[in-house]
Amino acid sequence: MISVAEVFNIAKSTVNKCIKEVIIGLCELSSKFIFWPNLEEAKAVEDKFKNKGQFPGVIGCIGGLHFTIKASADQEDCYTDRKLNKSIIMQGVCTSDYIFTNVNVGFLGRVHDARVFSNCKLYKMIDTNGSNSLVYGKYHLLGDLAYANTNWLITPYKNYGSLTVRHKTFNTKLNKTRVCIEHSFGLLKGRW
To answer: How far apart are the C-alpha atoms of 22 and 128, rounded to whole Å?
Structure first.
């Protein structure tokens, strides 16, 4: 804020007010751009995923991203992630076209992806209303090993050194399809 205030020769409080107004505006517009596909749209999403990675029934890929922040000295430990950076977590679900259909931001960097997921609106809605509420009883999400495998969230087989060829092929197809969430995060970080 200090450098922006100096460049435009305005007070820091004015910059702060502008930042708040932009954030409020973005939050108000978010539902216009970030929304869950309805049943008809889900079929189109599945078809694109199937063409991309030969993995059927996918409605989205889920993952977590850490954004580095400046934490206050008295709370640094709460924000320290596994790489010893100070961060907050964004969890996202995206389509094969790198479009976010669900976003959850704000958990402290030290929180595990699985805990972020179990506390987000998406999980709570499925837990309360059943998988038919969001995945329509026939679709699923793809996630990495940070997530628990369920009937609506598929993760790779854990490799303890004894994976069969079939399991390795499954993991390769899943990861080839799931990589779109990593690309989505990369595009987001590149833009902002």
So the answer is: 34
The string of pLDDT tens digits covering residues 113-159 is 889 999 998 899 888 888 787 778 889 999 999 999 988 999 999 99
Nearest Cα residue to 82 out of 111, 107, 105, 116: 111
| Three-class secondary structure of residue 154 per DSSP | strand
Q: Are 131 and 59 in contact (CB under 8 A)?
A: no
Contact criterion met (CB below 8 Å) for 58 and 46: yes
Total-model pTM: 0.84
Inter-residue contact 36 to 134 (CB < 8 Å):
yes
Counts for the chain of helices (H) and strands (E), in that order: 8, 5
Strands 58-68 and 87-94: antiparallel
For strand 100-108 and strand 87-94, is the pairing parallel, antiparallel, or unpaired? antiparallel
Q: Per the structure block, which two tokens stand in for 88?
A: 């907050």
**What type of residue is 22?**
V
Return contacts of 121-126, CB within 8 angstroms, 24+ apart. 122/93, 126/152
